[in-house]
Amino acid sequence: MTLLIEALSGVLDTFLLYLFASGFYSKYRSTKYKGHLYLLVGIFIIVMSCIHMPGILRIVLSWSIISVSTYAIFESTVRKALLTSTAFITLSVLVDVICEYPFYLSGISRTVILGQGLARCIFIIFAKLINLLLILFIVTLFGKKGLLDIPFTELLPLTTCQLVSVFICIVSLELVGTVSHFLLILLTLSIAGILYINIVFFVYMRSIRTNYENEQQRRLAEQQLETQLSYYEQMKSANEQTRSLWHDIKKQLTAVTALVKDSDVSQAELYLETITKSFNSLSKIVDVDHPVINAILNDALGKSSLAGITLKIDVFVSPQLALSPLVLSVILGNTLDNAIRACSGVSADTPKIVSLTLRQKDSILYYRISNPYDPEFSSKKREGIHGYGLKNVSSTVEQIGGTMQINQENNQYTVEIILNL
């Protein structure tokens, strides 16, 4: 009977682990073998539940198995897997401690609770039910909302508190029956208080981080709006220039026709040269059938022209390119701004040329930008509206599952990015 009860406890723990982990992860490493891995983890947990061992050893083994299984089953980093297992073990131990008090205060000793029979069975069901409710609450509140993507340095206080709480819980379990009820209740409340203070601190830090990210997005949105407005102003100016040019060309073509009839070839050539210069004086506008890319490239074209920099563009993308305006602004806007700024700092005898390639082939998008640079000039601190640099570009590329490579050879700076759309 005892083994059956402990096996039932292991089955429930396996289900709770699945519920907890799946609440924070949405992608599996292998959908084909996830069922087999869950079964293997369940067997380990059930076997450990049926074997008598010290509490510390049981917790260490459980923590190790849960960490490895989380990393093996889900698309998780080692850090995320360790955080998940630590949180799950902390919650389980804390619930076990709290759920022992009603039995202990009712006159049922801990020996009976940990032994066999009806009391043990009721305790397991009661503890797992409380654990289930807490897991549902935590998953609803924090699940799949980027909680585990926060840098480890920010989660370190919370993780440390969890480990300390686990240790205190184990100590308090060992003290049941040897100290007064008041001291045990005080100890439990202290544990809960420490966790509460730490969680409030964590939520506060998370709020600061969220506000910082929102500020970044706001500034990038403002930058994107300015770029769009600049593009529309360029288009308006170019349209006005074109209308004015065609008005003048009609008169000039009439004059050329008359001169040709009169065999005044030299004067006709002068008129044709004037017409050619008028065409060359038109504002240069980039049009690649994508409004956001058009705006970003035309804004960069205007900046590069003012700085005396040549911008060579080779772009071929679908009008339905599946990237958000914010992502395009971060990647294209920052790298172009960096390239133009770097070119402005090179010596006069160095050709100031920025070469940009952006090509889409099926679901693959290839981006490359190359420019000369002066290492001494480029090491100076950068300020201004962009201000996020390649670190922000790299972070954005990583978030959407792309790869980024930077090369610095012969004072030529090259950034290559490949995105799988």
UniProtKB/TrEMBL annotation:
Protein name as it appears in the record: Sensor histidine kinase
Top-level taxonomic group: Bacteria
A GO term for molecular function: kinase activity
Provenance organism: Butyricicoccus faecihominis
Keywords attached to this entry: Kinase, Membrane, Transferase, Transmembrane, Transmembrane helix
PANTHER family linked to this entry: TWO-COMPONENT SENSOR HISTIDINE KINASE
A Pfam family of this chain: HATPase_c_5
Residues passing through the membrane, by range: 7-25, 37-61, 82-105, 117-143, 155-176, 182-204
Domain Sensor histidine kinase NatK-like C-terminal: from-to ranges: 325-419
